[in-house]
Amino acid sequence: MRKTVLPVAIATLLASVSQGLACEGSDVIFEDKFQDLGGGWSQKETVSIGGGSLSFLLLADDMQSNLNVMFSVEDADVCVEAVWPTHKKPAEAGEATQQVLGVGLLFWGENNRTYYQFGVLNNGRYWIARKQDGAWVGTIAANIDTPAIKTAPGASNTLRVDANGNELGFYINGTKVRELRGQAPKGSWRFGVSGDNFDKTDVATVHFTKMKVTD
Fold this sequence. Notes:
The protein is mostly beta strands. Helices cover about 5% and strands about 50% of the residues.
């Protein structure tokens, strides 16, 4: 795994984001502020952890996911805070443009090839999708506009999934955007994070600053 020192601009940004997460369960099952490598995340060349951030290095047209290895849950309230990069993509002519990027919260995970994903884009849209045996088998909500998403470079967004049996609640920055019923995995399941880069030519980096799971 590459453990890198965050640039000064990002370090300053991480120091300024909110200190709390919105998970409402009374018992804390898991909490990670990504200060070190002890949180139970898979070690990959495309992930750096430390200094208050878990960061995905995303190649052009790339998606990365990371399910937590050490913790599993049943009924759980899962929250994560993500931060968009602070810079824009240089344009060939005119003003710089913002790459279309996504950050996701993974839940109901059985393994690294089977899980559900709740994600937001920096163009103000969210989605909910299902991956089964390594293939995307269904998009439950595709590119839904919502004013709850903060889209500016450097902005932070809190994603939350409240999973209670077969009932699911989805929140963005404290605003409930969707309720669903589904078939939860038998027994315990895993949670995680993901990053998406929809730009066809340039690399990008997305950051997660803290994660919390309660019951």
